[in-house]
Every structure is written in structure tokens, then in C-alpha cells.
Amino acid sequence: MARLPEAVRVDVEAWGGEPDNVVTVPIAALDPEPVGRLDLTGRVELDQALRFALAIVY
Questions:
Q1: pLDDT in tens, 11-27
Q2: How many domains does the chain have?
């Protein structure tokens, strides 16, 4: 996750080489209080989902 100024539109290159438009979420829109914690199983599942979504191969 990158820190960008609030609500800045950026173009990033997607898997196919075509730029995708990404809209950042204003920091003020985020709740500062955590809603909970992930246990080990949840962290493993989150890691697998992120690797799949971002096409990260180990």
C-alpha cells in the first residue's frame, strides 16, 4: 500500500499492459479504530488472496 495525497487519481499499469485508473480513499474516510484481528488462518488466507489478486508468484 502506498501513501498518496488524499483522493489523487493515478494510473498504474495492469497485467495486460493497459493502464488502470485507481482512486485513492481519503484518509478522513477511514475509521481510525481497528475492527478486529485476524488469527493465523485468516492471515494465511489474506496472504493467499493478495498474492492471487496481485499475480505474485513465489
A1: 556 666 665 666 677 88
A2: 1
